[in-house]
Amino acid sequence: MTVFPMTAPSDADEMALGRVDAWWRAANYLSVGQIYLLDNPLLREPLRAEHVKSRLVGHWGTVPGITLTYAHLNRVIMRNGLEVMLVTGPGHGAAALNAAAWLEGTYSELYPEVGQDEAGMAALFRQFSFPGGVPSHASPQVPGSIHEGGELGYSLAHATGAAFDNPGLIVACLIGDGEAETGPLAASWQAPRFLHPWRDGAVLPILHLNGYKIANPTVLSRIPSEQLAAYLRSQGWDPIEVADTAQVHRAYAAALDECLARIERIRRGTAHGAGRPMIVLRTPKGWTGPSHVDGHAVEGSWRSHQVPLTNVREDPARLDMLRQWLVSYRPEELFGTDGGPTPSLAAWRPGGERRMSANPRAHGQVQRDLRLPDPAAHSVAVTAPGEVTAQATSVLGDYLREALLRNESNANLLLFAPDEHASNRLDAAFDVTSRRWQLPTQDNDQYLSPTGRVVEVLSEHLCQGWLEGYLLTGRHGLFSTYEAFAHVVDSMVAQHAKWLLTAGSVPWRRPVPSLNYLLTSHVWRQDHNGASHQDPGFIDHILSKRPEVTRVYLPPDANTLVWVADHCLRTHGQVNVIVAGKQPAPQYLSAEKAAAHCAQGLGVWEWASTDGDGEADVVLACAGDVPTMETLAAVHVLAELAPDVRVRVVNVVDLTRLFTPGRHPHGLSDQDFTEIFTADQPVIFAFHGYPWLIHQLTYDRPNHDNLHVHGFRDRGSTTTPFDMCVLNDLDRFHLALAALERVPRLAARLGHLRQRILDRLAEHAECVRRTGDDLPAVRDWTWHSPHPDGANS
């Protein structure tokens, strides 16, 4: 591993490094002040207990490494005129980033109440980790940030996503050594295999080894340097180590200069065989803070992780230690009589949008409109419900192929999947693009190219993290995956949803394109892979998040799927989940009717209903493609067994329409809900997911006691498609029986009707176990009108 410094600096370099050191001391002073002080920000008077916050909340240990990195990046930005973004992985480092933004003037521009003077400094300090203020992690309120850091493991993935299709941009990524122990971060080292040398921006990882997590040493800090270097080189990186704390500014400056030179050679194509440059930075945890407290080492130990000095208000000796800590940065050299940075310090910063805290990409202010085709032009020709069979995701693939073509010139759309694009029937995209791939290829490879618009890597974490970084910097994308394995990124999407919600209240942040999921290979058609692939609970997870940003769509056929996907790709500031199957299935709605149905979100399918203009005896509701098919087949069963039963069929596409308006912006009024589902009739609801979700969405609706939901009950195995439904009581026979049991006037003949249904279920069970296939009458079922006159509109 290369180690710097190697040569003596020039006088000009010494002057620049002197300014780096002054800026670093100022940022550290401001960071300590945010953690501790309520008042007396510049110690103009003796420090007293009432000047200190009663609750000390913050993390000091990682701060000096962040401020050091920020200072040195500013030096090269100013010298070379670079555009740089900084992604900070260490969890609670917002104090350092707030300090940097305040020193650069960005904070005061965006928050005029926090000016660059003594009163503004006091406001900066008071609001930190304080009720009504800002968090200790890099939330959306922090200028220049796209990475929250509340959950560790995703900084390098976010940095990589931000670099995709951003030529000329350098994304510096500070990675904490605790974070480096996570699985997602370990996978993120694969970035060089997907980043194009000049069509994409450059990612510059800075692995910060300060030695400790919250209470334990970190793994990578204890690995010998040569072993760590060998590991990083095997992942495609060429590391430079900065470990000389006595000459840290010289060493860091030399390392950064070398990294930038290598990045330029890579962009020009003259860096043959070399890995991508990165820095391994070794500094003590809590550096420049208290050395020892009560005889225990703090600086360079886990004890500096959060608040090194506690009980400051109660203990005069601790209060004096805080004072000594603050004055060690020599604030009188850094801040003027008005409390603002001295003129020399204020001038030492990049200009305008070159400030990392003011980078417009980080604030969503650099966006290009997505050029999308007309969904109707990519629809299935449906003249009557059920007469046509198609694969919904294959039809969507044709639409996405055209979308990729329309956005080819502006590099504004990427499709992400964990090795499943073709499996999920979206392979029409490969007519116009390839999979992004920077490694060597072999003769039997397919669709691999350094510039592909489809990004496949067998890691849901990377797909999610790369897409988030891409979206947060203003571009558009879609993440398709097997439904059961979307759970791998449960915590990631929760963090992203929280970010979107908070960002929506920050006026200087522009809403970014939505995070769009396509969940396919879903629970009801995982009869071949078995129980390990059967879990529809991701939608439960999404709808437990704030309604301002969450949406779930269950299109019943191909034309509704294309309409929903088109709608989601046009939205901003949301998390959209679409669940759709990839197997051949009946098609019900023309393009025009699909558009109208999806725009409404749910509605009565009169062509499938038998209640006419009168009152329904029972409502058969459905949400999801397989539940819709089984519901329509149940209409046939009822028409055969009890033709006098009046049935209303309701299909739900937008699941959030079931909420009341006070609980979700898409919610139906009670009046509209009652007009659709009736005021007092039984509702048999066939649902794609776990049944209790529908009850959670509708618990405060009129007639909820008459709502009976059939859905996935975690009864699955390797079996036939229809048997999956039978095992979970979602099949046409159980749905029909549930309806018959709740029509009071059928009580006298219910026993006979039930037996006829049970006989069919027994026939099904015998056939499946004898032949390994579903009953021909089930397998070959097609829709036909239940109306006596045969009307099928």
UniProtKB/TrEMBL annotation:
One of its GO terms (molecular function) is magnesium ion binding. GO terms for biological process: carbohydrate metabolic process. It comes from the Bacteria. PROSITE patterns: PHOSPHOKETOLASE_1, PHOSPHOKETOLASE_2. Its cofactor is thiamine diphosphate. PANTHER family: PHOSPHOKETOLASE-RELATED (PTHR31273:SF0). Belongs to the XFP family. This is Xylulose-5-phosphate/fructose-6-phosphate phosphoketolase. It comes from Actinokineospora alba.
